[in-house]
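SEQUENCE-TO-STRUCTURE ENTRY
===========================
Question of interest: how does this chain fold, as expressed in backbone structure tokens?
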Amino acid sequence: MEFIDTETIVKPKEELQLAISSVTNKEIKSTTLEALQKINTARIEAEELKDFTRVNFIGRDLEGIDLSGACLFGANLANCNLRGAVLDRCDLRSVNFQGADLSGASLRGANCEGAIFLGTNGRDADLEGANLRGAMIDAVKCKRTNLTRVSLTSLDRFGRERVIKIKHPCYIPKGEYDLDGLLKESAAQYDRARKLTTLLMLGLLMGFLKYLAFRFSLGV
């Protein structure tokens, strides 16, 4: 996989323009120049640059960055500090999040198909409605990670690929998980919620029957 190395972006103006065209393939503007210069200081404003296809951000400090709706297809975000980052509705297909810190980050509705989550810190991250089909997930650190309405790809006992969508509210407790672990925890939460709902309904039914019996005894 070929990445664009942001270390080479700070150059004289003539060479910088070539770097910009390789990243955005759009008309060069002064605001884009400023945005590219901010890449080296890891402070990028989303409204200035939305196309980060295959950009190499490895090890960068991107804490609290807002890239809502941006395209980071195939980007390398390994070992990045993305604490509190906003990546809602982003194109994160095939992105490398290995070793990245996504604690408190928001990836609501993001397309993370084929992304790599190996040793990623996802504590307090919000992935509601995200697409994680075909994603590589292992040793992911979770605590209160929101996986509500997330789509995951798993294999059945015949080795065939199947898509599982978590429809119920799902918050992963503290621990390290792989894909199977996340699916098992989701299923366990669903079972607990179903049992609790069943007990609640039975309690209401018993209370209603006792109420009817009491009214009937008064009538007699």
Notes: The helical segments are 13-24, 30-39, 179-219. The domain at 50-219 is CATH 2.160.20.80 (Pectate Lyase C-like). Residues 7-34, 39-47 have pLDDT under 50 and may be disordered. The chain has two domains: 9-49, 50-219.
